[in-house]
Amino acid sequence: MIFQDASDIVTDDILLELKDFIPHSHVYLKLEGLNPAGSVKIKTATALIASAERTGTLAPGSGRVIESSSGNLGIALSMVCAARDYRLTIVTDANTQKPALQAMSALGTELF
Questions:
Q1: In a domain, 85, yes or no
Q2: In which domain of life is the source organism classified (predicted)?
Q3: How far is CA 36 from the centre of its chain?
Q4: What pLDDT digit, counting tens, does each position of 45-79 carry?
Q5: How many domains, the chain?
Q6: Residue 56 is part of which domain span?
Q7: Residue 4 predicted with pLDDT over 80
Q8: Helix (H), strand (E), coil (C) string for the chain
Q9: Position 26 in a domain
């Protein structure tokens, strides 16, 4: 498959059943290998932006998104906004980890 936009890769959960892992039970492993941002909040970010586009609040290539985040949602929004050409401002706090700040910044996010 060829995708035009990184957020198009976001899919429903992919689950692998681990048969006989624990006798007399069902154990499933959630696979996140196709998560383009490496963030657990990618579905939330994709849904937020898609909803704003559906209602006309945002149009691809124009608009700014402002959000408060100290990590996962900010990284996911950074990826989605970069792919859809939105400006993104993330308001962080002093406890935000440096790798999260670097990831958001690398995707063009303005940090405050």
A1: yes
A2: Bacteria
A3: 8
A4: 989 999 999 999 999 788 999 999 988 999 999 99
A5: 1
A6: 37-111
A7: no
A8: CCCCCHHHHCCCCEEEECCCCCCCCCCEEEECCCCCCCCCCHHHHHHHHHHHHHCCCCECCECEEEEECCCHHHHHHHHHHHHHCCEEEEECCCCCCHHHHHHHHHCCCEEC
A9: no
Average predicted confidence (pLDDT) for the chain: 86
Contact 72, 97 (CB under 8 A): no
The pTM score is: 0.76
Q: Flag whether 3 is in a domain.
A: no
| Angle, CA 45 vertex, CA 99 and CA 68 arms, to 5° | 60
For 9-46, the pLDDT digits (tens) are 666 667 888 988 888 898 988 776 666 666 678 888 98
With tokens 């990284």, the residue in question is 75
Flag whether 15 is in a domain: no
